[in-house]
Design a protein that fits this description.
It is a single chain. By secondary structure, the chain is of the alpha+beta class. The chain has a domain at 29-108: Immunoglobulin-like, CATH 2.60.40.1120. It has one helix and eight strands. Strands 2, 3, 5, 6 and 7 form a five-stranded antiparallel sheet that branches. Strands 4-1-8 form a three-stranded mixed sheet.
Length: 121
């Protein structure tokens, strides 16, 4: 089997196992917004969600309004953070996803680092 075929099979198996795991217990949703340090939406940020023990990472991207959504997740506690333009938000820890409910979260990106350049002669 070629590497690309193997990878495609891996993705399909992972998705199938994830759906089977979600089907075994109560499920809920998590959605939110990623904002910059000035409170403006951050489009196309990568948002990572993982169980609070650091396992089972999932990722999605924000839309033009900075909104993201994770659907069909087992109830429990999760950690969440965003990445955009070389910077990460702080981890938001122990977010609870409840059965048949939508949990709302806002992530804030840190201000850009002040980069100064010193030229010596």
């Amino acid at each position: 089997m070629k590497p690309l075929q193997r990878f495609a099979c891996f993705l399909l198996l992972t998705a199938a196992l994830g759906m089977a795991a979600s089907a075994n217990g109560p499920i809920g949703e998590l959605q939110g917004t990623v904002l910059d340090s000035k409170g403006k939406p951050v489009p196309d940020a990568t948002v990572t969600l993982q169980t609070s023990d650091g396992n089972h990472p999932h990722a999605t991207h924000t839309d033009a309004g900075g909104h993201f959504k994770f659907t069909r997740f087992e109830t429990g506690q999760y950690d969440l953070r965003a990445y955009s333009n070389g910077m990460f938000s702080d981890w938001t820890k122990r977010i609870s996803i409840h059965s048949k409910k939508i949990t709302e979260v806002t992530l804030r990106m840190p201000p850009p680092a002040d980069v100064s350049v010193t030229v010596s002669q």
